[in-house]
Design goal:
It is found in: Cell membrane. The protein is α+β, with helices and mostly antiparallel strands and 835 residues long.
Amino acid sequence: MFTMRSIAVKLFRAAWSNVLTSISIITISICLVMTMSVYIYNANTQMKEEIQALIGEMDLMVGYNPEQNKLLTKSQIASFEEIYGVSKVSSVSLAHTFVENEKSTSFYTVGVENDDLVKSRYHFTVNLGPKDIVITENVARLFKKEVGDTLNITFNKTIGDEIEAEIDNFTIQEILPALKGTDSPNMILLQNDVLKTWMDFSDDQTAGMFALFSTENNMATSVGMELKLLDETLRVDIMSDYGEFKKNFQALMIFMIVLSFFILLISSVLLLSTFQLLFYKIKEQLMVLRALGASTKQIRTIVQLQLSSIVIFGVLLGITVSLLVIKSWLPQLIDLMKLPSARTDLPIVFVLIIGVSSFLILQFITQWQVRKSASLLPLQIATENETLSLRWTKWKTIIVSSFTVISLFLFLNAKFTDKESGKSALLFLLATLLLCGILLFIMPYLFTALLNISLKPIRSIFGKEAYLACQQLMPQVRKNMPIVLSIIGLMVILVFGSSLFKSVQQTSYQYINSQYEASIKIDNELYDPTFKSDLVKEIESLPSVSYAFAKSDNSFIALQLENEWIPENYTTVDFEKYIQLGKLNKISGHYKNGVLIAEKFAKQHHLSVGDSVTIGKFDYTLQQYITSGQLQIIGIIDSPIQHANLVMDWSSTLIEIEKPVVTTIMVEADNTEQALADLTYLQERWPALKLTDKESIIQQNDEMTYQRWSLFVGVFVILIAATCLGVLQTLLHTIYAKRSDYAIQRLIGLSPNGLIKLILTQVLSFVFYGLAVGTILGLVLTRLLGFIDEGSTVYYDFFTLGMTSLVFLGATLIVFTLQGYWISRRKLANEMIEI
């Protein structure tokens, strides 16, 4: 005697290929979602570990802002150590000193204790004595120092109205290499007891400028609140709450959420489409069972057992493949593609949560098919595919209107929510997904309306076969919507992912171009005053160099505006060179006493071209501003140059008096490699010069960008292939199932080539519609999510979208040309007998 379970299993034999397809779809979707989720989980853990490596064991940093002119005392440090939850407190001081009598630039100098907390923060290992120091790799390079060498340090301390210089020699005990992924800073570490005596407002009770705290687990916030109660003027920075740390991961998390959402959407609609094919295959058996008296409950049990078996096998296989990918293939992929090192830990609880959640979601989705199959009578099972219509009802209007209002409310709420809190991003994400869901819901109705409007023009332009094909599409719109939704979901993912990738890449390019206005950049890191703008002519005389121009540091000058002295910074560039390069518009006026001003600054102070302004400097002896001359405004620029509202030419009389330091020379070369070799003589005269080229920086940036995204590119490729195969398979079965209709049409006069044209018109209509709507929806989704970061610019990768669309359309054209040719060439007699 057969049980419901045995009947359900035996019915699988009628559609074993569809069963395997369903299981494979679930396996692929589970594998993709789980692999990405575990990858992002490990990346998040690794990011926290890297932050921990960067800031050490420090959980809080406490001190006063510089303008408060206050230092931490020894009694305060003692009271800090008594707070519940505090493990360790270490005092730190800060100053800027001059090294080796190099007066042009100062160096960041930190006074530290010898405890483990401060060592973990600044990454040194030796115990410092009164005459010992630790320096970074870049400082050692600039002054050609090694461990054991002596370094001369000068600190200028203000006592009353006079400046006294503290000068001493220190022995280098350690040289700190640059941390991974960072540039080596110009930093010096020495004993805190030495440095704190150099600071203004320091006395015998001074402990340091600020203090580092390590706390017990999850106690940083409560300790920070306790510190604010002790002294509300204290500045308390909780390292785990730094906004920058959270922002670094926000874009990737949003990308992951959207990607996972649409992967599940695509998987679901492909699964539903495959289920429909499965039950089309076994509908005769279901008809027999219903005719023999099988109850609704029995049919529901059979269908539920079948679908649950498919889901269970798919989820278990997906988890198994995911484990294999994460523990075996992913490390090999990271090594093969030279990706940044990543953790491949397998959090079992996290994996089980994803597996169980996916199972429950898929089980919920299958209930629609269970309910549908169980409620049909024998005659309905035979005819269900023939009567599928779309009708817009009143309740649909109410639902769409309600959700539209909710999404608009969320957008408005997100607009006026604090961006730093992270709540704004969540609201934007929810509103965007809700709005896209509404658009997806109404798309079939828009498609049907568009077909109705287009029927007559299609007949006039493309002929009767195309007209007949579009007319027959009407009852198929609802049935084939899973196909369309799959393509739409795929294109949304592709638009969003490729746009995010391109936006990151283009933003990097913009930053690089802002730093490198020519192919080679020469930096005067020690602000050596002997490195002058006259060198430009010498550099331009090299055969490998096209042109060069110099830029200065920013200096301060005071303008007398409306009987008030306003201090502003100015920079110096070559006006003629900037005009030739299109960086400035043509300027009318004398450069010697002329100045360019930023448009915003001009509007703020009601200045225009031709106005003269009085300039001056602050006299510390007289304690007032002294007039030093006048400048004429000869042009207004759109935005500041190097953050300076005032821009001078190198020929300006002010520059001759002030003699600003040349910080950068930009060199444009015909052959970058040859030019770098020709320019090495400069480093022999000024060893501290740093030569870099734009091409190498861009190559390094591209390599890092592709490395970060290569895993997700692999996900896209798998997803595109899976979706394409699923869509083509479903359409192939749909066309094959309609052979009876095609046979009748051939009997009444449709030619074989006309039949091919009819089939191609039908399938290409659905594919093209899905591609077009998916692209539009993807552009809308990406643009709306772009509002999360209002200052960012969204870039679209139309080349990738175009190539993917062409591949999809090309594959559809080839497959269904072959199928149409096969169907159209079959003998009608045989076709009618088989049907």
